Structure formats: C-alpha cells, structure tokens
Amino acid sequence: MTPAGRDAELAVSNISEAAVPSISIPDLETLATSIHDDTAFVVLTEEVLRGRDIGRISTLLANQPSWSDLPFIILTSRGGPDRHSSARLSESLGNVTFLERPFHPTTFISVARSAMKGRRRQFEARTRLEEISRLNETLEERVAIRTAELQRANRVLSEQIAQREDAEERLRQSQKLEAIGQLTGGVAHDFNNLLMAVLGNLGLLSKYVSHDPNAARLLEGATRGAQRGAALTQRLLAFGRRQDLTVRPTDMVGLIIGMDDLLIRSIGQNIELEKHLPRQLPRALIDANQVELALLNLAINARDAMPSGGKLVLSVRQERLSATRGELCAREYLVLSVSDTGHGMDAATLKRAIDPFFSTKGPGKGTGLGLSMIHGVAVQMNGALELTSVLNEGTTAELWFPATSEATLDEPVKPPVASSETAKLLRVLLVDDDALIAMSSVDMLVDLGHTVTEANSGKAALALLEAGNEFDLMITDYSMPGMNGAELARAALLLAPKMQILVASGYAELPSGAGIDLPKLGKPYSQSQLADEISKLFAGDE
User: Fold this and answer.
1) Distances 12 to 2, 19, 75, 456, 501 between C-alpha atoms, Å
2) Which end of the chain is less crowded, N or C, counting CB atoms within 10 A of the terminal residue's CB?
3) CB 43 within 8 A of CB 75
4) Cα(441)–Cα(426) distance, integer angstroms
C-alpha cells in the first residue's frame, strides 16, 4: 500500500523482479480485508500509517495462526521514523523491516527476497504442522483401539499401556519441537545473514569516524545492539540443536566452584546458596562454556522465582541407567541439580516449561528461550534436562550428562597466526547470493588490501574459473539457490586444485551430508575475524 507518487508502481515493478506476484492496495480498509494466510509480505509507506487507526490490522495480526509471522516492509522518509513511532509500529505490526528512501532498487529487491524467504519457511512450517495434526489424529485413534483391546484382554497389562501412552506423548512432543526447531534454526540463519551486513558495515564505518566522539558513541551502541542480536541467534540455534559444540572430559565440580563469584552476584544477597559437591566423581563429557551458561540461566530463573528470598541448592551426583529412559540411553551419568524454594509451577505450566517462547515472567522480562536452549544443548551433548516442581514449594532442574573415565584432553598447540597487518595480499573470489552481505564482505576484504572479484552464484563463480581467472582464495556462502557452497567447492577444486576455500554460513555448523571438510567461518563475522581466518589458511606461505 503505497498510494503517494510513483511508489506503488515502482514497488510492484521491483517486486516482480524478485519473482513475487503483487497487488496495489488503495487504503487501510482494503488492506485489512486483503490480508490472508497465503499473503507473502506487505509493503507500506510510513506516511500511510502516520496518525491512522490500525487497530483492525493489529487485531488481524494478533489472531494469526501459530506458524505465521507476516512480514511488513515500511518505506520511510530520510532519517526514518522517530523512536516512539518505530516502537509503536513494531508493537502493532510485529515483524517489521524499515527501509529508508531513497534506496537502490537492488536493495529493495534484496529486502523483498529476504522477506519472501522467511515467509516461505513459515509456509513450510505450516505444511509440517498440518502433517503432524493428521499424524496425531490417526495415532490417537490407533492408541485408543489398542488400549481398549488390552484392557479387555488382561488388566495386568495396564502398566505397560501407561508406559506406551507416555512414550507416544513424548513422540508427539518430540515431533512438535523438531518442527519448531527447524523453523527457528532457519530464522536464526537468516538473522545471522542480516547481522553480517550490519556488523560488517558498522566495523568499516568506525574507521572513518574515530575522530568524532559522538559518532563513535552512536556506532558503539549500534554495534552492541547487533551483537545482542547475534547472541539471540545462538539461543535459537541452541534450541534447534545447530550450534557448534566442543565436548571434552570436564571436572563438573571444579566448573561449579569456579563460578562461585558469578553465581553469588547473580542471585543477590537475600538468597542463600548451598552446595553439595562430592570430590570423587568421574568427569563429564560436556562443552564447559555451554554448561556454564546453562547453570547461570537456571540460577537466574531460580532467583526470579524467589523475589522475597529463599535457598538455592546446587549438587552433583553420579547415576547409572540400566535401560533407556526418554532421551537418555543406558550408561553412567553425572547429574547437575539446581533446586530452589520459590513459587514453583503447577502441572500445566511444568508441561509447557521447555516449549520455545513460553515464559511465566510477563511481557518484556524474558524471551521464553532459556529452558528451550538448555534442553537443546543438553540433548546435543547426549544428555537431558529434567524438571520437577510443586506449586508454592519450589522447582528442581536436573541436567544429565554422560560420564567418562577419560582425563581432560590437552588443547592442541596451534601455530602462530600472522596478523592482518602483515598477511600477504591475495586474489579473492567472493561468492554470495545476498547483495547486502556480498557488498559488506567485499568492502572488508578491499579494506584489508586484497583484490576481490564478486560472483552472485555458484554458476557465475565456476564461469570465472573456467575462463582462466586465477584466485588464491575463494570465500563462499553455504546456503545458495541452485548450487550450495559444498557443491561449488567440489567443482571449483577440480578447476583450481591449489586454491584455498573458506565456507561462510549463518548456521554454526554445516548441515549433515555436506560431504566436504573445509574451513568454516560463522556469520556474522567481523573484519578482524575474517582477517584471522585468512591468515590461518595462508600461515604456512609466509
């Protein structure tokens, strides 16, 4: 809906270049009646919304299906809306991207494609969720028939029936979490890509305004905000079980003792901290950093559950399971227990506690991803998160991790890495289908002194190599249409066997089945991180 000037005509023309059919809307009333579940995204100009009542549209968005988060692209005047207006629009419309006019058509098309890509993932989630409804209906019918037959046959089997029903409930929960995990992992990937462009350009811009204290302060604030967004994507990736872990034999008791000061500062003076930490315990196979974050998150949750004070009890014990139980297989485990004397949870709340985006802290006081992230990390380390709670008495969270008799592995000695100032200058082929990210990465590489050639697809990159162009290094995005980064790398190495290859990805690890072992650079990355990775690749050439 862009009724002023030629905005609508230009928007429709540009969106058509992104292969997305579109319609022009004359007023807000028509817009409200035109939005439906298959709408991909909405483009609005800022002035259309200024001072208008958008209550009907807000109500429509509030009643979207659970899979839907309709994107809005708002074309703003130079300087953009003020903070109050931006907050109001974001609160009313939800999924909002602001694009300042005037802008280059390529930028608009890129934003439109990003919105379309995110919306397609929502459509895919809808399809998956519909398939899970259908599955649940047939599954419940079979369970009911089988349960009736077993009850008629022999009451002795009642315990087995209860166990079967519990297993089926776990299966349904697992299917639901897996579907949402795939969605959140995809969103995190796209968000990492956007942050890549933001942080990269902010880093370059900081070099030009260091003499201006006010500009430097504003840049620092923007950078910190983008870094907080990057931290949020790590939580999303943790829930989707797609972040990279370094699992090593670790002294669990030593880890907890090392966090004493941090835990005491985090829970405050009105909460008593009690620890039961036996010394003679095997080591746990864990990523120590992730477990520290999980323990800190659980301690803060416990603090929030005891606003008037109470007791937080930390303990570690050794357990052996002789048979599979839920997500845990039969083996030795170390169990980290975090118990509080807070307000606890009723059965309904406890059942939803690890669901993504579910929170009891109220609006603006939590993302609802804390327990989901902890659960995802524990499962990724072949463990589990188990919760028990009694209303008005307290909650206990237990983290189960595999135990091992292995000693702590020493860190490998890494060769010194040449600094970015002394690294050799290279001929670089940069491959990325996202124009914003490609532009930011090219600017960073050129600023480092390298000669850069850009290709926006795997096909275009191979054409450059087949034409005889020589490169020292190819940096390629992994997720690209037509040919992904792994496929491009295999083909490129046949044409240029001596060329180094670095794969950049919004996921913290490449998807299974990539079929190639290459150095990886996680998005979003800074110029210094890019320079360090390049230096590692060419450290032996100095």
Assistant:
1) 10, 11, 13, 24, 39
2) C
3) yes
4) 15
Query: Confidence band (pLDDT; 50, 70, 90) for 273?
Result: very high
Report the interhelical angle of 105-153 vs 158-206 (nearest 10°): 170
Q: How far apart are CA 240 and CA 88, in angstroms?
A: 31
User: What pLDDT, in 10s, does the model give residues 282-295?
Assistant: 999 998 888 888 89
Report the C-alpha gap between 497 and 502 in whole angstroms.
14
Q: Strand 332-340 vs strand 394-404: parallel, antiparallel, or unpaired? A: antiparallel
SS3 of residue 505 by DSSP:
strand
The full DSSP string for 142-157 is HHHHHHHHHHHH-GGG
Neighbours of 197 (CB within 10 A): 21
| Half-sphere exposure in the Cβ direction for 107 (13 Å, CA) | 13
Structural contact between residues 498 and 454, judged by C-beta atoms closer than 8 angstroms = no
Q: What pLDDT score does 139 carry?
A: 79
Amino acid at position 470, single letter: E
Backbone angles phi, psi at 96, to 5 degrees: -120, 135
For the ranges 75-79, 322-326, 351-355, the lowest mean pLDDT is seen at 351-355
Helix (H, G, I), strand (E, B) or coil at 321: coil
Max Cα-Cα span within the chain:
84
DSSP state of 419: P
C-alpha distances out from residue 180 to 225, 236, 513, Å: 26, 10, 21
Residue 466 Rama label (left phi>0; alpha psi -120 to 50; beta): alpha
Which residues have a Cβ under 8 Å from the Cβ of 383 and sit 6 or more positions away? 286, 327, 328, 333, 399, 400, 401, 402
Q: pLDDT digit string (tens) for 8-46?
A: 777 778 787 767 788 888 888 888 888 888 999 999 888
Residue 115's H or E segment, with its range, is: helix 105-153
| Helices 370-380/213-239 angle, 10° precision | 60
Q: 180-183: which pairs have CB atoms within 8 A and are 24 or more residues apart?
A: 180/125, 180/356, 181/239, 181/240, 181/241, 181/356, 181/376, 182/125, 182/128, 182/240, 183/67, 183/121, 183/122, 183/124, 183/125
Q: Where are the alpha helices (DSSP H) in 70-104?
A: 83-93
pLDDT band at 383 (very low <50, low <70, confident <90, very high): very high
List beta partners, residue 248. Answer: 286
Look at the chain and count its residues: 542
